[in-house]
Task: structure prediction
Amino acid sequence: MHINLNPNLKNIQISGIRKFTAIAKQIPEAIHLTIGEPDFHTPEHIKQAAIHAIKNNDTAYTPNGGKPELRQAAAKYFQKKYALEYHPETELLVTHGATQALHTAFQTILTPGDEVIIPAPIYPGYAPIVQMCGAKIIYIDTSQTNFKLTPDTLQNAITNRTKIIVLPYPNNPTGTALTKEEMRCLISTIEHKNIWIISDEIYSEICFQAEHVSIGHFPTVRKQSIIIQGLSKSHAMTGWRIGFLLGPETFIQQAIKAQQYHITCPCTISQAAALSAVTNGIHDSIKMCAEYQLRGFYLAERLQEIGFTVNKPAGTFYLFANHTKFSNNSFDFALWLLENAKVAATPGTAFDPYGQGYMRFSFANSLENIKKACDAIELVLS
Result:
């Protein structure tokens, strides 16, 4: 007997990042610069808040959009951090991580046949969700513009089917970020159009060269802008799965329906932890960010000396290094480095075809290990 499954899932593959990481784990002695996960522990005050919630039996359902006190505290947090004004009851949802926030946002907006513009190379988590919604991805190659989306390339990609433009800055995998002027120029192309902007700002607290520029800073597009946020990167809380979805009331009213039938509500214990993060942990990310910057700048300089072409990161904990001096095939080169240097980095093609010729190095690892990795790579390539 053959029972049909959802055809939109047939062409969706397991993340290339995860695939290559699984290969790398077969070499126990390898230094892993693949997965983008903070190597810091969740701050103690956050863990204690979760323990307190468990001991006090705070284990019942919460409202679909999250606890009111968390929504209020999160709204104050984003106001203090980025001068963003979002009403906690009508313009903000607590989600099961940023990924679920993305899924809810796409599902709330998209219908079959719609188009979604995404700058590439890009984190591989967007396209599958769009495809599951029956919509089409329109990639814009940014490799010739320092991995930044530009007004001209954006304008050329917009059609009468364009429903969403994704702005993923600071960017995974490239480590790029937009300046306020660059963002303003992009917005001039989008404002007054019936197009939604989904701004994935999950790395907003890991910025090195300037303050983070949020789409929420631009009033002319506020009614068409949605912000994806979360605590995974800023507070080393990847496993806690707490994100935030910020947007206009008209959008949030519909998004909460999708959220209700996705998850009912975010985990109660994680919400208690998140409340401590956004009240007592407003400065938790500062030391982590400083350490990431130290590692990232060191890694960029070493890779440049070895023969890679790479820019210093503006944010995140990633470098996207061009390796065509040594090889044109990203997967083969990544495998060769793994076998010969015992260093695991992610082939650029794990993101999309536009990543060919590049490798993503995650510096969410100790500086000591990063130095060892660079020494090993230099040894096998010299």
